[in-house]
Specification:
Number of strands: 20
Helix content: 25-40%
Number of helices: 12
Shape: elongated
Structural class: alpha/beta
Strand order of the largest sheet: 2-1-3-4-9-8-7-5-6
């Protein structure tokens, strides 16, 4: 009997290990090679969002395909080529062919990228609206989609797709708009050798990508190219926001800042936000029914009146936390409990006993080191940014450092978790101006902090 149980235990452990391994391996890695213009990068960002929300992909974006080589491409299951790539880039085409021929997935999107891949110069006929027809609704790449849909953008015509290609969708090149009267391919797959290539001429700009059919064909093409499986996938609705978003109240006031600060909270389906222009305005009423967390970017140096202080305490004691950004470390500077027990640091406006006043310096080149084990910084390596730094602050020994500075102030805490035990409090030192707001790593840190404070990364 013991032998039977022992065998069962071994078998179960093997199965568990196998299922765990499968769970890790089932996640696909995608790299988007964006074009060289700002419009191309906006297109790439929407592609990243579509693949990320699909749930099967980890996605990275390379903002220029120039210099792309096999070393960059090979670790990925899928490479997405999009935008205005230089058609004469022989190195890029060679690297893509080598990559695809090793059994990897390639998704080519938009007229210019398709022409780059096929080494053609097929023109695109300008048309406000044209009708796309699915070739075979029984094909898993088309199953569940409507038999036809209206698309916008440029219709590519006179394109040579190769004898091995299987057409998934085509559009009628209407003679009424100067067309040939023929069905022109808009989506097809190719399996020449080991390569899995899916080409999609739709989606030459953001407006076209938000049209009918594009996102569905894009996701299906990505899934097939990356995995070789053509299983149907759920309809993609780009206008749908995620259910149960984090409800954020952003508090400003008392300190000037560029309006581009607000872009830190835009473009995410998992957060929604409102704005108060002062701490007193924000805390006039009980915040608990309306918001899940606070983002403080204000400067309220004095004490709060009793009512407002009670509303803030009630909010925090209910387990709803706060993200404190940059100059908001000076909030409630005379409230010792807030400095020591909540945010875990203090900026000294004037000397206190033997402690000299704190100071600051603008436009420093910061070399920052994240703790990659924390959810806020997971997947983020060392990075650089230009920002304002505060000197001579007091730090509580109870804070948990998430990002430290390697230069110019070595081992100085930059992002940390405050000592408050009843809710999650995160402070971020950077955040003075557009150098921070537009920095992709800073934006990711802010977004991740909002999700972690609200228990969405647990």
């Amino acid at each position: 009997m013991r032998a039977i149980f022992s065998c069962l235990a071994v078998l179960l452990s093997i199965l568990a290990a196998g299922s765990s391994s499968f769970a890790v391996e089932s996640r696909l890695h995608a790299l988007i090679l964006a074009g060289d213009t700002s419009a191309d990068r906006s297109v790439a960002e929407l592609m990243r969002r579509i693949l990320t929300e699909n749930g099967n992909f980890d996605v990275a974006v390379n903002e220029s395909a120039m210099g792309a080589n096999e070393q960059l491409l090979m670790p990925n299951d899928l490479v997405v080529l999009s935008g205005s790539q230089p058609s004469a880039n022989v190195q890029l085409r060679h690297a893509l062919h080598q990559y695809a021929n090793r059994g990897k997935g390639l998704l080519v999107v938009g007229p210019e990228a398709v022409n780059t891949w096929l080494e053609q110069k097929a023109p695109a006929r300008s048309s406000n609206l044209f009708e796309v027809h699915l070739a075979d609704l029984k094909n898993p790449l088309a199953a569940g989609m409507p038999a036809s849909f209206k698309a916008t953008g440029g219709l590519v015509y006179d394109i040579k797709i190769g004898k091995d290609a299987e057409i998934i969708a085509a559009a009628f090149d209407d003679p009424a708009h100067g067309g040939s009267g023929k069905q022109e391919p808009v989506a097809w797959k190719s399996t020449s050798g080991k390569a899995r290539v899916f080409c999609l001429t739709l989606g030459n700009d953001l407006a076209a990508m938000y049209g009918e059919g594009f996102a569905d064909l894009f996701v299906r093409g990505a899934q097939w190219s990356a995995s070789g499986k053509a299983a149907p996938v759920a309809h993609v609705d780009l206008f749908r926001t995620k259910s149960n978003p984090v409800r954020v109240l952003v508090v400003t006031g008392g300190h000037a800042y560029p309006s581009s600060f607000y872009t830190l909270f835009e473009g995410y389906g998992d957060i929604t936000w409102a704005h108060s222009t002062s701490m007193l305005e924000a805390l006039k009423t009980d915040l608990r029914p309306k918001y899940d967390m606070l983002v403080l970017y204000d400067w309220h140096r004095g004490l709060l009146p009793d009512k407002e202080r009670k509303n803030l305490l009630d909010f925090l004691e209910s387990g709803k936390g706060a993200l404190i950004l940059h100059h908001a470390i000076s909030d409630f500077n005379v409230w010792d409990w807030w400095q020591r027990e909540v945010q875990g640091a203090k900026y000294f406006f004037s000397p206190e006993g033997a402690t000299p006043a704190s100071s600051y310096e603008h436009d420093l080149d910061l070399h920052l080191i994240p703790n990659e084990e924390h959810p806020i910084t997971r997947g983020i390596g060392p990075f650089r940014m230009v920002d304002e730094v505060y000197y001579g602050m007091w730090y509580s020994p109870k804070i948990q450092t998430v990002v430290t500075m390697a230069s110019p102030l070595k081992d100085t805490p930059v992002v940390w978790i405050g000592p408050y035990s009843q809710a999650r409090i995160v402070y971020m030192l950077p955040g003075h101006d557009e150098h921070a707001y537009l920095h992709p790593v800073y934006r990711k840190l802010v977004h991740n902090s909002i999700l972690w404070i609200s228990h969405r990364l647990d």
